[in-house]
Write a structure and sequence with these properties.
single chain, 377 residues, Rossmann fold, 8-stranded mixed beta sheet, 7-stranded mixed beta sheet, 17 strands
Length: 377
Amino acid sequence: MAVKIAVTKETRAFEPRVAVTPESVKKLSALGATLVIETGAGIAAAISDADYEAAGATIAKDAPSAVATADIVFKVRDPSEAEIAAMRPGTLLAGLINPYQSRPLLDALAARGVSAVAMELIPRITRAQSMDALSSQANLAGYRAVIEGAEAYGRALPMMMTAAGTIAAAKVFVMGVGVAGLQAIATARRLGAVVTATDVRPATKEQVESLGAKFLAVEDEEFKNAQTAGGYAKEMSAEYQAKQAALTAEHIKKQDIVITTALIPGRAAPRLVTATHVASMRAGSVIVDLAVEQGGNVEGVVLGEIASVGGVKIVGFPNMAGRVAADASALYARNLVNFSALLFNKEGALAPDFEDEILKAALVTHAGEITHPQLKA
């Protein structure tokens, strides 16, 4: 029998994305799978039930009936309690399930016998680049952060010379130069802003400058050794953070738009912008905090709102990639299609090799247990 893949409507607040698109339905079908989609799953991403049916999927009336006979469940975010209860033991689940902050979810999945893959944990190796959902979504988040910042700013970003006078270019400061930060820099530059950026990793300096932005950092010995072998930022010492805060204090008060993107896997987001920094900024300035869902980089940020502090707007919209839902869904669905190649054998049967380095790195529950070494404790 064909492998059945179920896709359900996302239930988490602020989540309009969907895990599968009509394009990916066709590609997954070519691997030997049949697709069951919960009715309305794609509406927020501009995909109708009719679009899915035209691509060859079947529409289910609700989430439990979609997953009840599924071999694989694809999600954007974590499944609901009802979805978990409806899954059969041995079901393979893949999604951005935020494993470090979701211990009750992991316990529930393990108790149900679900083999859960956290797409956040796909290793950043060459073979897995096409499956890297964090990067695909961060690209869009960085882009959208600039758009939201420009909207809240309410002024033009590029320099404009008109008969009525000249409008100065906006100054944009990006804090944290990962995938989202680099896209934010590129987008702000395309819109004509004067861009500066900072990061604790020395390797990002060249990337920032290649995009036409200026790099700002305390470049001491700790800075030179502030990156893990996997390319992630290490948590910096209190001493370094104090020096970096002093450097940015003078710089930040001159900025029109500040975008913060700093995240550390498994930890609360580091505090980059303090109330003192905010108070030093001009009225009408804007800060966009992309780390708001993990506590925020900015003191005073409010989840889901634009807070006004002394005339400075602090944008705390969660799931910035979801604000470009159609494109975010399309990219994420392609990540899942590429990941699916690890799950099927040449005959189209479900045959995941849990010793494969990609699957092993991302597998968090299996055979009734929490399996990931960093999550067992």
